[in-house]
Amino acid sequence: MTDPPVVDVDRVSRTFGDVLALDDVSLAVRPGEAVGVLGPNGAGKSTLLSLVAGLRRPTSGTVRLAGGDPREPAVRTRLGVTPQATGLPQTLKVGEVVDFVAGHHRDPLPRAQLLERFELTDLRGRQCGGLSGGQQRRVAVALAFVGRPDVVLLDEPTTGLDVPARHALWAAVRAFVAEGGTLLLTSHYLEEVEALAQRVVVVDRGRVLAEGTVAEVRGRTALRRVRFRAPAGAVPAALTAGAQVPAGGAEEGRWELLVPDADAFVRDLVGAGVPFEGLEVATASLEEAFLALTGGRGAGAAA
Predict the structure, then answer these.
(1) Are residues 140 and 236 in the same domain?
(2) Residue 300, class by beta-carbon neighbours within 10 Å (0-12 exposed, 13-18 middle, 19+ buried)?
(3) pLDDT in tens, 133-146
(4) Residues 297-302: what's their mean pLDDT?
(5) Which residues contact 18 (CB under 8 A, 6 or more apart)?
(6) Does residue 294 fall inside a structural domain?
(7) Model pLDDT for residues 67-113, shown as the tens digit of each residue
(8) Which distant-in-sequence residues (6+ apart) come within 8 Å of 34 by Cβ?
(9) b vs e for 61-92, b when ≥16 Cβ sit within 10 Å of the residue's Cβ?
(10) Distance between CA atoms of 214 and 62, rounded to whole angstroms?
(11) CA 6 to CA 289: how far, in whole Å?
């Protein structure tokens, strides 16, 4: 893509007292791109989004949004944001909250269209204080799209949502990107990043560890997933000693291992005379690559 980036983070660092939250981070997101930021708790994901949103300023480096300073009101009119923590007016109805936010924009999305897109029509007459946590989260995400933004920042958008609600929200976000919108999101759900993002950025301890498409990030690790069937106890312990065994591996004679060199492992399997069948070798999943890149620190977040 040759278009100039609509989000341009250039060698940014941010400190909070003695804590270095971001360390020389650079990131460019171009119009129409959907980029997912992955990392363990405390990796710097929310700090990065707060800088792009203009809520904080970098200690060093520059952040540009649509070519301007994200702290300028005129620039921020092109932005929609849903932070991790949101508070809705408890006594206002959902439709009233949408109308209130719409009143701050020159050309807002019609209320009925927004509610339909995010499957909130049935909640329009409900007070926000009477909604479940998941319903409130859906409303908070929808509000980021009221002003027809060019860029939307979503920080853990589907936390607390059940599976049907999560998929409904994904469909609405995909429609925004399909129409040319730009998306930057953080998520603990790797499935979510795979579903929504064209590009992935892995961060840990304030630094970018890997960046690229899902396939490219997977390829940053040498891990390969090897599946096969063999009798229980038929595989020598020496062959699996250095391999990671995913949950559910080696059950009922079905083996599933993560190995650094699949070719060498299969050669050793044959050399040991193991009677195996149904051999499959595949690239590690995004979750496995993420955990390998962060040294397992994201294990809780990746679940």
Answers:
(1) no
(2) exposed
(3) 999 999 999 999 99
(4) 44
(5) none
(6) no
(7) 999 999 999 999 999 998 888 999 999 999 999 999 999 999 999 99
(8) 177, 182, 183, 185, 196, 197, 198, 199
(9) bebbbbeeebeeeebbbbbbbbbeeeebeeee
(10) 27
(11) 28
What distance in Å separates the CA atoms of residue 18 and residue 15, rounded to the nearest whole number? 7
CA pair distance 22, 58, nearest whole angstrom: 9
Number of domains in the chain: 2
Angstrom distance (rounded) from CA 267 to CA 295: 28
What is the phi/psi pair of residue 140, to 5°? -60, -40
DSSP state of 235: S
Indicate whether 247 pLDDT > 90: no
Give residue-wise pLDDT tens across range 56-69. 999 999 999 999 99
Q: Which helix (H) or strand (E) holds 262?
A: helix 262-271
176 and 259 share a domain? no
Distance of CA 163 to the CA centre of its chain: 16
Q: What is the pLDDT of residue 299?
A: 39
Contacts (Cβ under 8 Å, ≥6 apart) of 298: 38, 39, 40, 43, 204, 290, 291
Mean pLDDT, residues 198-207: 88
Q: Which tokens sit at 37?
A: 């930021």
- Are residues 230 and 186 part of one domain? no
> Is residue 39 domain-shared with residue 122, that is, in the same domain?
yes
Which pLDDT value is given to residue 248? 55
